[in-house]
Write a structure and sequence with these properties.
The chain is an alpha/beta fold. It has 17 helices and 22 strands. A seven-stranded mixed β-sheet has the order 16-17-15-14-20-21-22, with helices on both faces. A hairpin with a 5-residue loop joins strand 16 and strand 17 (318-324). Helix 11 (329-344) packs across helix 12 and helix 13 packs across helix 14. The longest helix is centred in the last third of the chain and has 27 residues, at 529-555. Keywords: Carbohydrate metabolism, Kinase, Transferase, Xylose metabolism. This is ATPase.
């Protein structure tokens, strides 16, 4: 959690805010939009949040653009209020700012900038035929949620909006364009739209040509490369805040235009930055509404695996991603039920306290969960071949139903599908020195971290900023862009050329190691032998029990 500034630091931070030497990061997550203000030393000094929820409209998981705009303004206003309360000033400018958001999905626009269909988020699993055909064509795994799968599925289905598509992008790309007018995207987020060649740090030329030939008969003249955002690597000048963008973010008129923006990124990339894991043999796990692991590869994988996506770091290095649609939401729901039960007993408790008590009980559970099984499938889960989900708690008459076993099983349920994907990565011989964990699940010290170490049989590190997550990560990327552009003397409103790689000096990995994480204290949990054996036994039952989950989807 963010720590308040000490009294002797307050005046220095106030001065930095007034002088515009802070950086701002905004991340649009699944359930919260968070804004994080970062000082010149990269430490978070203020934050703001706005809660929102996706909606299922006509069978599509979506967020409206009105909700995006309202959420941005709400999170920013909450941040400004926090700054005023802490430091007695209102920020008018920043050294740089950045936007990140849930990766993938589909936001198609016409030539006038009008959205042609409701935003189709990463949660939608309606692109099976397109993803399968593209994976076969490219010899490269194309997940259901990738933007190109959504576009090609729309082509296959002859959707009437397709001829009008003049551009398409991700949520981060949309917000960035609303703030700057620039149709660009960070390479990490771009690699979830269309495969990226790590050698060029741009869209894969061979696959672009294959796609042209594939759609030529159905949509002659469709040039997907012309529809995609320009790819930029970390450190590039991605444009400047326009008058309209400043008014969108801050309707009060206090925020001035002209602020430098870093390339917009996906939440996977900002998670890597937030944990300092952008070098080979490092990786991170982000746990929220979804849960995913990112492992930076030393060399390409030998085979195509549907459980593993190939994306990149914000600098363009190849990453294997294990992405699970379902994360900690079901655990949160059970914590809510227990909180309601406490209130019914006349003992209402703070939600964080209830969640902490539930997690703490997990440590006393049997290593294998006492025979219980938990499936956190609120949505479909491509890794296990499910188009829909049904949350389940399953036990046999001989299972030991206790609070401790229940709690441990719910945490195991968060990690279950992820562990199946990590097994595939292990089978490829990929070496991991340490996995860094972040997200709200790890704010309760020592519980989820220890159980995760047992689940993946690898050390798991958590830093002081584990609860800050991607909003802090994109603020750090904004600081990196400010430093890189100062070093390169960039002055234009959009000085990036090519893929933007020319502006990345110093290298992102060096910047993080030497300037951001040099003094960060990490808490490292080594895998406990009993936890490793217990989770392995649990995972065997979990894999076998997927038949029950499939039956529930069919029956309910």
């Amino acid at each position: 959690m963010m720590q308040a500034a000490q009294p002797d630091d307050t005046s220095a931070i106030r001065e930095a805010i007034v002088a515009g030497r802070t950086t701002l990061g905004i991340e649009l997550g699944s359930t919260n939009i968070k804004a994080c203000l970062v000082g010149p030393d990269h430490a978070p000094v203020a934050s703001g949040t706005h809660a929102w929820e996706n909606e299922l409209a006509d069978g599509v998981w979506t967020y409206s653009l009105d909700a995006v705009h309202t959420g941005l303004q709400g999170a920013y206003a909450d941040l400004v209020a926090d700054v005023e309360q802490r430091f007695g000033v209102r920020p008018t400018t920043y050294a740089a700012l950045g936007v990140s958001a849930m990766m993938h999905g589909y936001l198609p626009f016409d030539a006038d900038g009008e959205l042609l269909t409701p935003f189709r988020t990463w949660r939608n699993t309606s692109t099976g035929p397109a993803a399968a055909e593209l994976s076969e064509l490219f010899g490269y795994n194309i997940p259901l949620r990738w933007s190109i799968a959504h576009l090609y599925q729309a082509i296959l289905d002859d959707e009437p909006h397709v001829p009008q598509v003049a551009s398409f992008t991700t949520l981060a790309g949309y917000v960035h364009r609303a703030l700057t007018g620039a149709h660009v995207l960070g390479v990490g987020d771009a690699s979830g739209m269309f495969p990226v060649d790590p050698a060029t740090r741009d869209y894969d030329a061979r696959m672009l040509e294959q796609f042209r030939h594939l759609v030529a008969a159905r949509r002659p003249g469709l040039d997907v490369e012309g529809l995609l955002p320009q790819v930029l690597t970390a450190g590039a000048d991605a444009g400047h805040l326009t008058v309209e963008g400043a008014a969108l973010l801050d309707p009060t008129g206090t925020l001035r235009p002209g602020v430098l923006l870093c390339p917009p990124e996906g939440d996977a990339g900002t998670g890597m930055v937030a944990t300092g894991s952008v070098a080979p043999r490092t990786g991170n796990i982000s746990a929220g509404t979804s849960i995913f692991a990112m492992v930076v590869l030393e060399e390409p994988l030998t085979s195509v695996h549907h459980e593993l996506d190939l994306v990149t770091t914000p600098a363009g290095d190849l990453v294997a991603m294990v992405h699970c649609n379902n994360g900690a939401s079901e655990l949160d729901a059970w914590a809510g039920v227990l909180g309601q039960f406490a209130a019914a007993l006349g003992r209402p408790a703070d939600p964080d306290a209830v969640f902490g008590a539930l997690l703490g009980a997990a440590l006393d559970g049997a290593p294998d969960g006492g025979g219980l099984l938990a499936y956190n499938y609120l949505a479909g889960e491509p890794i296990t071949g499910l188009d829909e989900g049904r949350p389940l708690l399953v036990r046999t008459p001989g299972s030991r139903l206790t609070l401790a076993n229940f709690a441990r099983t719910q945490v195991y349920g968060v990690f279950g599908t992820l562990a199946l994907g990590m097994r595939v990565l292990h089978g490829e011989g990929v070496a991991i020195d340490t996995m860094f964990a972040h997200g709200g699940l790890f704010r309760t010290a020592g519980v989820a971290q220890r159980l995760l170490a047992g689940a993946i049989d690898a050390p798991v590190a958590v830093g002081e900023t584990a609860g800050e997550g991607g909003a802090w990560g994109i603020a750090v990327l904004a600081a990196f862009a400010a430093a890189a552009n100062a070093a390169n003397g960039a002055t234009g409103a959009n000085g990036a050329t090519g893929t933007g790689g020319e502006a990345t000096a110093p290298a992102l990995d060096n910047y993080l190691r030497e300037r951001v994480f040099a003094d960060v204290v990490l808490d490292v949990a080594e895998p406990d032998a009993a936890d490793v054996a217990g989770f392995a036994a649990y995972l065997e039952r979990y894999a076998a029990g997927l038949a029950v989950e499939r039956a529930a989807v069919d029956a309910l």
